[in-house]
Specification:
3 domains; Beta Polymerase, domain 2; Rossmann fold; 4-stranded antiparallel beta sheet; alpha/beta; 16 helices
Length: about 425
C-alpha cells in the first residue's frame, strides 16, 4: 500500500506562506475531488488548520506528483514553494500521521484540538468519497494511537495552550484583565476557548460577531456574551480592549485604516488583537500603530516555546508508543498483502490438481470409488507438500520489511494473476 504525504506546517513555513495554501471549507469538496483525480492518486485526504496544510494519499504503484498538484491547485510558483514543503512515503508517512494525530507535531505539544481537526478532515473525505479502504485503515488507526498516547502518557496534562498564552500576553499589555471587554470575530472553537480563559481571568463583557448571525447568537449564549451582526463589526469593534479573530475570510478584514478609526474613538486607549486565522484576518501594518498590539499564530508559537520544556519527557515516551504502533500497523499491512496471495496460490494449485485428475481419467477409464479416493489423497498430498514452503515463507515475510518483495517473487514463480492482488479491485 503506497502512502504518500506532502505538506507545510508552522515549522517549515511562515504564516504568510501557509495562508496561501489554506483551503476554505467551501472549497474543500472541490479540492478533494481534484486531488483524487490527479494522475496516480487513488485515495486522498486534506488536513487544513492554522498551523498546517497536509495532503495524504494512497497512490497507484507508488508514483504521483503531489508537488505538481499543490503548485497547480494553489497556483503557486514551485521553486518558491519547494523549500517549505515536506514529503513522506510509506512507513515515514504512517509515522507522521500518527505523530500529528497524537499532537506530537503540534505547535503546542499535547494540545487536544488537532485530534478533532483530523476527525473533521477524515469525515469530509469520507463524505466526498475520497477515503475508502487503505486510508480508512490508516486514519482510524491513528485515532486509536492518539487515544493510547493520551491515556498512557501525561503529554497533554499541562495547561499550556494558545488560549492560555493569549491570556498571558494580554496581562502584559494591560497589567490586569479585570473589566476588559473582549470581541470575538468568528465563532470557532479556538476563539471560544480563548474567550473562556479571558473570562476566567477577570474579563468583563464578551461581544461575538460572525457572518452567520445565528452562529454568533449560539456562541454568545455559550460564553454569556452579546451577539453582533457582522455588518456592524467596524461600528462596534472599538468597544473592545481585546479582539480575538479567526474567520475563514480569504483576505484581511482589519486593516490600518480600521485601527486608526478604533484608536480615534477610544482616545488612544490600547487594543490587543489575537489573530489565529490562516489566512490572517489582521493586516500586519496594524502593528505599526501606537496603541495597537497584533499577535498572529506564529507570534503565539514563539510565546509558547518557553512553556513546553516540561512536556519533553512525556513526549519522549509518546514517541516510543508511536514507534511501536508504526511497526504493528506495517506488519498488519504486510499481512493484508500476503493473505490474498496465499489464497491465490492455493486456488491455482487446486485448479492444476483437478485438471490433471481429469486428464488422467480420460486415459484410465472408469475408476472405482476406492481408486478415486486414492488418487485424491495422493494428489492432495503432493500439492500440500509443494505449497507448504512458499506459504510458510509468505507468513514469515509478512512480519518483516521484505514482505512485499516475497509476495512479488511468489506470484512470479507460480504465474499468479495480478488482478487478484490487494487494492486492485477496491
Amino acid at each position: 500500500m503506497n502512502f504518500h504525504l506532502i505538506g507545510v506546517n508552522h515549522k517549515t513555513a511562515p504564516v504568510e506562506v501557509r495562508e496561501r495554501l489554506a483551503v476554505p471549507e467551501s472549497r474543500l469538496p472541490e479540492a478533494l475531488k481534484r486531488f483524487v483525480a490527479h494522475p496516480g492518486v487513488d485515495e486522498g485526504l486534506i488536513v487544513c488548520t492554522c498551523n498546517r496544510v497536509e495532503l495524504l494519499a494512497t497512490t497507484k504503484n507508488g508514483s504521483a506528483d503531489l508537488r505538481g498538484f499543490v503548485g497547480d491547485f494553489f497556483q503557486l510558483d514551485a521553486p518558491a514553494l519547494a523549500p517549505h514543503l515536506y514529503e513522506y512515503r510509506e512507513r515515514d508517512a504512517i509515522r507522521h500521521v500518527f505523530r500529528v494525530t497524537s499532537s506530537l507535531d503540534s505547535m503546542i505539544v499535547g494540545e487536544p484540538q488537532i485530534l478533532g481537526q483530523m476527525k473533521e478532515a477524515y469525515a469530509a473525505a469520507r463524505n466526498n468519497g475520497t477515503v475508502r479502504s487503505h486510508l480508512d485503515q490508516l486514519v482510524t488507526r491513528a485515532f486509536s494511537v492518539a487515544k493510547r498516547v493520551r491515556t498512557e502518557t501525561a503529554v497533554g496534562s499541562s495547561s499550556v495552550s494558545v488560549a492560555s498564552v493569549a491570556v498571558e500576553l494580554a496581562k502584559k499589555i494591560f497589567g490586569t484583565l479585570k473589566g476588559k471587554n473582549v470581541y470575538l470575530v468568528g465563532a470557532g472553537k479556538m476563539t471560544e476557548l480563548a474567550a473562556r480563559h479571558l473570562l476566567a481571568h477577570g474579563a468583563a463583557s464578551i461581544f461575538v460577531a460572525n457572518r452567520t448571525y445565528d452562529r454568533a447568537v449560539q456562541m454568545a449564549a455559550n460564553v454569556g456574551g452579546q451577539a453582533i451582526r457582522f455588518e456592524e463589526l467596524y461600528e462596534t469593534c472599538d468597544r473592545a480592549d481585546i479582539v480575538i479573530t479567526s474567520t475563514g475570510a480569504p483576505h484581511t478584514i482589519f486593516r490600518r485604516e480600521h485601527g486608526e478609526l478604533f484608536l480615534s474613538r477610544r482616545r488612544n486607549r490600547p487594543m490587543f488583537f489575537i489573530d489565529i486565522a490562516v489566512p490572517r484576518d489582521v493586516d500586519p501594518d496594524m502593528n505599526k500603530l501606537d496603541g495597537v498590539f497584533v499577535y498572529d499564530i506564529d507570534d503565539l508559537q514563539q510565546a509558547v516555546s518557553a512553556h513546553t520544556a516540561d512536556r519533553q519527557k512525556e513526549a519522549a515516551r509518546a514517541e516510543e508508543i508511536i514507534a511501536q504502533e508504526v511497526e504493528r500497523f506495517q506488519a498488519r499491512l504486510n499481512t493484508l498483502d500476503v493473505v490474498p496471495t496465499i489464497v491465490s496460490l492455493q486456488e491455482h494449485l487446486e485448479n492444476l490438481r483437478q485438471s490433471e485428475i481429469e486428464r488422467a481419467r480420460t486415459r484410465l477409464g472408469k475408476l472405482t470409488p476406492e481408486q478415486e479416493q486414492a488418487i485424491d489423497v495422493l494428489t492432495r498430498g503432493i500439492v500440500n507438500k509443494i505449497v507448504h514452503a512458499p506459504i510458510t515463507t509468505l507468513k514469515t515475510a509478512a512480519k518483516e520489511s521484505e514482505g512485499t518483495a516475497v509476495v512479488d517473487w511468489v506470484r512470479r514463480i507460480f504465474h499468479l494473476e495480478n488482478d487478484s492482488e490487494p487494492g486492485d479491485k477496491g
